[in-house]
Amino acid sequence: MFFGIFRRKPTIEFGESEKVELELKGEGEEEDSRMFLVEVLAYDAKTITVTAPKSENQMLELPEESSVTINVEREEYTGTFETQVLFVDKEASPPTLQVAQPADVSWEETEKVAQRRRFVRLEIALPVDFRTQAGLARSAVTSDLSGSGLAMMLALSLPEGSGIALKLHLPQKTVTVGGRIIKVAPIQGAPGKYRIAINFANITEADQDTIMRFIFEKQRELRRRGLM
Question: For the chain, how many structural domains are there in total?
Fold first, then answer.
């Protein structure tokens, strides 16, 4: 009759309406991870319920049993754990994901975690000029950006594997860099438009640092405003 007294505690606990980072790994070795700020709505010893991540104001389709990584900040440390999507509630307002509580959490100094995040993408619209190997020159807008590459939306397809020259216009500087088109995919719900994913080639350390500083500053700004 004493069994009910001993209840399992959650591996990790959360504050009211706490925001955590949900990370989705890239589809291949050349695809960057994507990071989304989601809100913890509820948790217990077995599960954690968070708001579903969105991309371009649309809920991301994450199948049940898919793996995600959660990053939690505690003072000067970041806790990281991999978990599994148990249930997706598309009818909830807002839509939610239920994931499993982890068996354990790996903690590391937040500064060291940030140094590795050159492969994390930030969804942002920035002006970019490009010229293809074939000599096609156009202006476009980015859909996301990382220290290792970017994606842009175009009303035409470009050949995968081909080289491309870029001029990325950041608020504080224009970064000129070469790149390689690694993936071209049609955009669902936008006939005739394509997402062009590009890896930077031979980017200087100074330019990469400039991009990463911009990304980190923008992430902090969005977190303060509750928009990320």
Answer: 2
